[in-house]
């Protein structure tokens, strides 16, 4: 018989039922681990900053801000025996979108994590040790997809300046499969994000709801995914092509765990090539200082690294390598669709204008025979003239 396996399963599967709220109530905790090294370096203060392929983790509306195709690979260390890898793609599309305001983008993400091992001892009928085996403690897989577009523009006049405010909306969905020892469960969940950005003023606001609606059933008990509400503000400024600075403040609330967290972060880039990041996470079990760096090579290959220091003094590292290609000019990204109904009056007006222009040529010859009577008949119809 298996001696330790039932005990392990009972403790893992009953964890959610034993607590009504608090850390550990939700399943698949890997969904709460920041994979993007850029976001991790900024203390995960990224809801209003999201502008790369990692937007699906923080705010799917941020996908609409991409002006190039991106493929990135991330991996994390410092999570005990757990290994985590992530590959993501995101990029603009040539369509004007459902609302017809342009800036449409799509994204996809594959996250895989594998836990450590546990020892399982099997006993003989007389109580002696029969065999010992090492089994995988579990693994998680999450496949995500999203779509975003600009849904509207609002002009804002302040004193002598006019600011344009762009509104972005993003939708996402994910399939999650989780295995604990030999018990496997799966679930579907949805994401929703909103982002408002003013290019002239440099500020932005973002809000999102992530991992909504999904529950995993391992055995008899169903455990919810970590449904999370996020919100944040960000400001971007500097001298174009020389200095670029982003400052952000962010917060999130995990519904079933009834836990809130706050994050602050900053990013600085010099000549769009060398970057440094700093962040701090508040009210987290492993809260603490985060730092990071970034290097851009010809705007195509991006390398980002982040390091986090928690209360337990256990270092956590994130590395992301990105390849960027297929850039699209903002003028083309912001192309709007002309409603079909608008083309009909213009065509009708053009046709009426052409008819009016042709009318004198058709009607002027007709009164001439009446104005100058002619006695003899020429036999030529008057409409020829």
Q: How would you portray this structure in words?
A:
- It is a single chain.
- Strands 1-2-3-6-7-8-9-12-13-14-15-16-17-18 form a 14-stranded antiparallel β-barrel. The chain has a two-stranded antiparallel ribbon with strand order 4-5.
- It is elongated and about 90 Å long.
- The protein has helices at residues 5-13, 15-18, 37-41, 55-58, 330-333, 340-363, 368-371; strands spanning 69-77, 83-92, 105-114, 117-123, 129-136, 138-158, 161-180, 183-197, 203-212, 215-217, 222-224, 228-237, 243-254, 259-270, 274-282, 289-297, 301-309, 315-325.
- With 385 residues, the protein is mostly beta strands.
- Mean pLDDT is 81; it is low at 1-20 and 358-385.
- It has 2 domains: 5-329, Porin (Beta Barrel); 340-384, no CATH class.
What's the structural blueprint in terms of helices and strands?
Blueprint: H1 5-13, H2 15-18, H3 37-41, H4 55-58, E1 69-77, E2 83-92, E3 105-114, E4 117-123, E5 129-136, E6 138-158, E7 161-180, E8 183-197, E9 203-212, E10 215-217, E11 222-224, E12 228-237, E13 243-254, E14 259-270, E15 274-282, E16 289-297, E17 301-309, E18 315-325, H5 330-333, H6 340-363, H7 368-371
Antiparallel strand pairs: 1-2, 1-18, 2-3, 3-6, 4-5, 6-7, 7-8, 8-9, 9-12, 10-11, 12-13, 13-14, 14-15, 15-16, 16-17, 17-18
